[in-house]
What does this fold into?
Amino acid sequence: MIWYIIRRLLQGIPVFFGSTFIIFSMVFAMPGNPVLRMFGDRTPSPEQIAALEAKFHLDQPFLSRYFLYLGDVLQGNLGTTYAGQSVNEILARTFPTTLRLALLAVVIQLGIGVLAGLIAGLRKGGVFDNASLVITLLIISMPVFVFAFVAQWLFGIQLGWARPTVGPGAPWSDLLLPAIVLAGLNLAYVLRLTRASVIETSQNDFVRMAYGKGLTRGRVIPVHILRNSMIPVTTNIAADFGILIVGATVTEGIFNVPGVGNELFKAINRHDTPEIVSIVTILVIVYVLVNIAIDLLYGVLDPRIRYVK
Amino acid sequence: MRITRIAAAAGGIAVAAALVLSGCSSDNGGNNNGGGSASTGVVNVAWGEPENPLIPANTNEVNGGQVLNNMFAGLVYYKADGSWDYDAAESIESDDYINWTIKLKADQTFSDGTPVTADSFVKAWQWAASNPDLLNQWWFIDAIAFEGGTYDGGEDTLALDVVDDTTFTVKLAQPRADFPVALGYTVFFPLPESFFDDPDAFGDAPVGNGPYKLSEDGWVHGESLNLVPNESYTGPRKAQNGGLNFIVYATQDAAYADLLSDNVDVIDTVPTSALETYKDDLGDRAVEQGSAVFQSFTMNYNLEHFGNDDEGKLRRAAISHAINRAEITDVIFQGTRQPAEDFTSPVIAGFDPEGIEGSDVMEYDVDKAKELWAQADTINPWSGTFQLAYNADGGHQEWVDATVNSIKNALGIDAVGLPYPDFAGLRTEVNDRTIKAAFRTGWQFDFPSQANILGALYVTGAGSNDADYSNANFDKLFREGLAAPTQEEQSELFNEAQGQLFEDLPAIPLWYGSVTAGYSSLVDNVEYGWDSWPILYNVTKSE
It folds into this structure.
């Protein structure tokens, strides 16, 4: 097991180098001098351009800049933004918020998605099953920003049930609406996955056997059916957790959540290259780690996978 | 929501009844917000994270500028209409408009208790002038031209002399009657001693001498910046509220959603998506007024067919006549831009396009455009495509397409927009003079004087003269205008100088910007200034 983990972590290393190199070269290969952007419509003097290029190491060739950056990153220093803020600090500030938002979204997915999926699966072809099919199809077909704007307009502005954006300190109550929006899309998948899995498990011999032993529905459904149906669902949610952290940019922007996605959104608008590269790099690392965790989770949930080498 | 609205209405009736009962109350003052002079509520302002540390000489964008403007008091300040009055200064005087004597009001302090002296200004300006990596350093060299200013820096380069604690003198490189007008701009703010010990720490938590100071929470990066009234400030811009809370928004849409639900009180831009509805949403809390922003496109004189000769002049004039500015501002911008009539701005003193010879070149006139274009063809036949370059990351495509279509339809030539992926890419080619197309240009006024734009864009060798325009007559008229002792004389000379610009058209003026903004139902006395910034110290909000 330990060797398996180490092997997976080692596989992450080329992914890290490859992705940072690609991001770095793409951002820095963009035509034009970022110094000129800082002056807007005004034209700086050659002396000013030279002074600022030296300040941000823009006067050095691409490869030496990449290795300078990489050296800093390996020492745990993700660099500073053009505004002089440390990217480490920015991430330390924004990551907890994004993590909380993602957690809340996962809880919503688990709570509503699994329960509804279970009911739909047990009463296959019933009214609830058909209704949930239509509703989930509707949600899946809707782009996330449409869902987000509609939710913000309806619940935040028209009904006044929630703040349209997340307030100072990002309290849990403010995070609920964006978390529901974030959960929405994957909720549909979780529901349908649970339903299919429950139907499949219910037809297994061990379920008939359990009923045959005289066990009640109250024991068979949670212990025998649900538990064995959860393997694909859990891995789907774990994978989604990675996507939630990495991909909440649009939702965080709309609800003004002070998280990583929002920071990335602003950094891109400001063309703050050091910040963009560092944040994306961290997101890549997080995604790699989450994927390793998912692979390990398979083994924990299904002993058969653990023993087959 | 509904409950609060009913409560507010009832409150309004109660106030009206009280006024009726007290009878003569409307005679004294007539101030309609009833109670005392200053309110105590904290005003929430939609904001964005500044792009640079909060150091006056290194701040050239609106977010940092707005905060500094409320935390510092310059020698003068600007009123909503663009006129100026003394703030920290008692007098700014000169006999020859070259040698200036500046006297400060006595007994002023920074919010940390240290005194504001002549040194606070002189040291701040010298420091700014000697650091070429500051974004606003050009002020001391290009914009105002202090005696001794150089771009490559060096210690104490400017000709500034401290006479005593509250008096210092300035020597300019050329006579400039409007020098005091410029002194309200951010870059001329004073700095306390503590700044010079550690500029980086100061940029994170500035200490000023203005109407507000940082609260204990201060600047929570990425979230908000909190200001409270500065009790030691004694100037004319006294805070009328309990503080300012600048809230960081990633998008204008998010800020607008919060404005509709009264979670934010003042925004300075309505998002494009709400332009059609914001007047209905906000009622009389919607704001639309002119702002000191000038938009144009420029052709460098090295561009084929548009050189500094008869052909170039004819073609430039033909292009100008071929653009239907009124229709484009109406359809594309939904009336949020005003068609340009000159090279300055209608909100800046001295605006008088009617009085300038040749200003009819701004009129949409297809026949005239065709005629001028045909004349140019007899000198040197047209070939190729007219291209208008823009940065695709700035939302310019719509008006560029409309403009080139207008030119194409009027002149019957091929005209297309030429997108650059981002602003930096476009500016690099403009700066290197390698661009082979017309390109979009613009100017936001730093201080309310026509000299700001005319001097920076069209004077021979000026920093932002992207066209490489050079005309001895214009330069002469501009210099004379700068030295003219009265506004009237200056305007007359600047109008004459603009006449030369209309003849040569180094840039093709397009339209003026305007403010589209709004405020919440919780605040009163919200006014937007000539620079399109809300005048925050005057906003009142009850708790």
Q: What stands out?
A: The mean pLDDT of chain A is 82. The two ends of chain A are 10 Å apart (CA to CA). Chain A touches chain B through 57 residues (CB under 8 Å). Residues 92-301 of chain A form a domain with the MetI-like fold fold (CATH 1.10.3720.10).
